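Intended use. Records like the one below are meant for learning the mapping from a protein sequence to its folded structure. Do not use them to infer anything beyond what is encoded.
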Amino acid sequence: MATSYSSVSQRERNAQAFFPNSATHADQCRFVCIYPAYINAKKTRAQGRRVGKAKAIDNPTANEIRDILENAGLKVVLEPNRLYSREESREPQQRGRVRVQLKNSDETLIKEQFKTKDDLLFYLVDMIPKLKSRTGNQQQQQQSQQGGGKGKKR
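Structure written out for the chain above:
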């Protein structure tokens, strides 16, 4: 004989709001989540990339995302040990999640420039290659490619 342990039916549980009634947009549970895999050029769409391959970036990190969004004037929380569910690698470089507040508690946008998560992703794709850490690495790679020809054999 089946007994019901809950007074709430499955249908009623599914109809309930995902967030608590008291949660406002200023609460961290309402912040937008961004994983580095969303803008990683080395990932496929099935692996979680959300921007076009032509616009995506090679191996972005959660720290780079945090730095860019903090500089843009948004409230950002870095969760360094979080792992994207579609991420196959458990490496420390692949870890991290950034939570971003898009709206104030009165539901007004913090920045008019960032209305949706997609706006954030496209902004990140534009700004991450301009980071000093990225431009220094690109110059070193170009120099090694130019001088990387066959050397003298002794």
